[in-house]
Amino acid sequence: MPTNFGKELTSEELTAVVDYLMTVTGLYSHSRQNQAKAQCDLYFHPVLDRVGMLQWNRFDQIVQRGYTHAKEVIAAMEATTRPRFGMPAQDPGSNVPLTEHLK
Predict the structure, then answer these.
(1) Are residues 53 and 64 in the same domain?
(2) What is the distance between the alpha carbons of residues 37 and 5, in angstroms, rounded to a whole number?
(3) pTM
(4) What's the confidence (pLDDT) of residue 57?
């Protein structure tokens, strides 16, 4: 069993240490994610609640969620920002949705 300066840790202490390390890791990861988000021009973060890393049988559903999210993000972009990404600023009189070019 791991020791703490010569003293053996109890299972409760070991659990507490692991919980602490997981919390610190999560906070650091969240901080880095916020930094990256602030530095990017376009940010996609689709909601993937209840999706596990090994749920390959839901691949098509997950891709569709991402695609739908991307269309929402692009549709919400300001007209002045769109040309930076090679997209036309939507003509106000146009009946063609801005996301039509994604098909």
Answers:
(1) yes
(2) 41
(3) 0.55
(4) 94
What is the per-residue pLDDT across 38-52, written as a single tens digit (0 to 9) for each?
888 888 989 888 888
Range of the structural domain that residue 29 is part of: 1-40
Task: Return the structure tokens found at 79.
Answer: 């007209």
Please, what's the b/e burial string for 75-100 (b: 16 or more CB within 10 A of its CB; e: otherwise)?
A: eebeeeeeeeeebeebeeeeeeebbe
Q: What is the DSSP track for 34-60?
A: HHHHHH-SS------TT--TT-GGGHH
- Residue 3 DSSP SS3: strand
Look at residue 89 in the predicted model and tell me its pLDDT.
Answer: 77
- The residue to which tokens 């916020």 are assigned: 34
Domain co-membership, 66 together with 100: yes
Are 72 and 101 in the same domain?
yes
Site of tokens 């999706």: 51
